[in-house]
Write a structure and sequence with these properties.
Copper-binding protein MbnP-like domain-containing protein; about 300 residues; mainly beta; about 10% helix; nine-stranded antiparallel β-sheet; six-stranded mixed β-sheet; signal; globular; MbnP-like_dom; about 30% strand; MbnP-like; 4 helices
C-alpha cells in the first residue's frame, strides 16, 4: 500500500462522520444538506462477510469484498429546474473540491484489503431555498482524474481506487467471489481458463491518450465513462440514494470470466464480460450506444 493510502487507512480507523445539526456550520444565507447513500445487493443491505443469492444470469451466490465509488458535481434542483451546486464540506477525509468518496466496506472479513472507515453521506451547503430534486455524476472530473495519488489529498490518495496516471481513478470498485469463481485476484487468469478469478466491476475512463501509463493525458479520454444521474423529485431530508449493484450484475454471468481478460468487467474495450455491465450503467460500449438509462442508482 502506498504511503498516501496508508495514511488514509490510519485516518479512517473507526471514523464515522455524523450529519450536521440543522443550521450547524452553515453561513448566513445558506442551509446545510446531507445526501444519504445506501448500498444494496438485489435489495439487501450490503455488508462485508454477507453472501447474496440469486445474482446475475446464473442466479449465483456472491460474497463481496469491496464496494465504494466516487461522486462529483452534486447539485440540488430548485422548483424552476435549475441545478444549484452543493458546496461540499472540505472535511479532509471523504470530500475534496466537488468530489466525495462513498465507502461501504469496513475492512473486515473478506473486505480485509479495504479500510475501517465507512462513509454513506455527501455533506455540504446550498443557498437557502426550496429544492425538489438531485443531480450528480458518478466519477471523478477530468481535471482531477489523472495525477499522483501518493501526493493527492484525501480521498484521492487511495491507490486501491487508482489505475495509473494515464487511466486515472476507478469511479466504482466492486469486487466479489461467486459460486463459480470462489476467489478474487487483481490480474487475469494467466492460464486463460476463464474461471476461479472472481468477478469485479471497476468503472473508469479508458482509451486515454498519453505517452505512457505514468503520464497524464492532455485531453479527455475517448471513453470518459462518467455517469450523469438525475432525480427530478428527491427530498434529501426524507429520501436516500440506493446503489444496488445487483441491478448492474443482473445481465452478467458472474460465474465465468472471458479468457485472457481482467476478472469481471473493468471497463476496458474488448471484454466480453462488459456489455451487460456497461449497459446497466447507462454507458456506450464497444461501438454500441447506451442501451438505456443507468440502473445502479434509485431514490427511495
Amino acid at each position: 500500500m502506498a504511503a498516501g493510502a496508508a495514511a488514509l487507512a490510519l485516518a479512517l480507523a473507526g471514523c464515522s462522520i455524523p450529519t450536521s445539526a440543522p443550521g450547524a456550520g452553515a453561513a448566513a444565507g445558506t442551509q446545510p444538506v446531507a445526501v444519504r447513500f445506501a448500498a444494496q445487493v438485489n435489495g439487501q443491505p450490503f455488508a462485508c462477510g454477507q453472501s447474496y443469492a440469486g445474482v446475475g444470469t446464473t442466479r449465483s451466490t456472491i460474497t463481496p469484498s469491496d464496494y465504494r465509488f466516487y461522486v462529483s458535481e452534486v447539485a440540488l434542483v430548485d422548483e424552476t429546474g435549475r441545478s444549484v451546486p452543493v458546496s461540499l464540506a472540505q472535511d479532509g477525509v471523504w470530500q475534496i473540491d466537488n468530489i466525495a468518496l462513498l465507502d461501504f466496506e469496513n475492512g473486515s472479513g473478506p473486505c480485509r484489503n479495504g479500510t475501517s472507515g465507512v462513509n454513506t453521506e455527501v455533506r455540504g451547503t446550498v443557498p437557502a431555498g426550496r429544492y425538489v430534486g438531485l443531480r450528480f455524476t458518478l466519477g471523478v472530473p477530468f481535471a482531477r482524474n489523472h495525477g499522483d495519488p501518493t501526493v493527492a489529498p484525501s480521498p484521492l490518495n487511495l491507490t486501491a481506487m487508482f489505475w495509473s496516471w494515464q487511466g486515472g481513478y476507478k469511479f466504482v470498485k466492486f469486487d466479489t467471489a461467486s459460486s463459480g469463481q470462489p476467489s478474487t485476484v487483481s490480474a487475469p487468469d494467466p492460464r486463460g481458463a476463464g474461471n476461479a478469478s472472481g468477478f469485479s466491476v471497476h468503472l473508469g475512463s479508458t482509451m486515454c491518450a498519453a505517452p505512457s501509463r505514468t503520464e497524464a493525458p492532455k485531453a479527455e479520454c475517448a471513453n470518459p465513462n462518467r455517469v450523469a444521474v438525475a432525480f427530478e423529485q428527491f427530498d434529501p431530508a426524507k429520501q436516500t440514494v440506493v446503489a444496488d449493484i445487483g441491478a448492474v450484475l443482473a445481465g452478467a454471468n458472474v460465474d465465468v470470466n472471458a479468457p485472457g481478460t481482467s476478472p469481471g468487467c473493468m471497463s476496458f474495450p474488448g471484454d466480453a464480460d462488459c456489455p451487460p455491465v456497461m449497459g446497466a450503467l447507462g454507458l456506450a460500449y464497444g461501438g454500441a450506444a447506451a442501451r438505456g438509462p443507468q440502473r445502479l442508482f434509485s431514490a427511495r
